[in-house]
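Students often ask what a 'structure token' actually looks like in practice. Rather than answer in the abstract, let us consider ATPase, a protein of 177 residues. Its sequence is given first.
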Amino acid sequence: MDRFFVISGCSGGGKSSLIEALAAKGFAVVPEPGRRIVAEEVAGEGMALPWVDMAAFARRAVAMAAADHQAICETAGPVFFDRGLIDAVAGLCHATGAAEVPDIARKLRYNATVFMTPPWPEIYVTDAERRHGLDDGIAEYERLMDFYPKLGYRPVVLPKADIETRIRFILQRVGVY
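Now compare that with the structural description of the same chain:
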């Protein structure tokens, strides 16, 4: 869908802060599947935590991202996704070593422009839901920068700047600002 925009990139690069700021400005947003899954797993059995079983975590992320995509189809205007289906599929392929991309990644589409938060060591922090280090985040970023174009997406790297500057950058490219 041309009005569905993904904000992806390096863990700890400011994606969730951007999503929160876009929501505060009245835009429709979809929170990151991974953080929701971690919260659910910590409250439950914890069998699909990324540090316990990455493949199970990725499968849950694919299912949740696909459900998010379908659930928000009727929403008017631009919708901003904190990560999304393509990130989940990339994670699943990495976790399982699968070379074949699941068909769902070609069926449920986003706008071809994908906004990528670059590695930003100065703001990177771990927390209860992000236990991996910056090196792992950078490796994931590099995988995503390689993966998105294979499915016809154009990654656009966001500037390392304050949230308002990043929002203006995004909205100008989306054609809203």
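One point worth highlighting: The two ends are 20 Å apart (CA to CA). Ask yourself how you might have guessed this from the sequence alone, and why that guess would often be unreliable.
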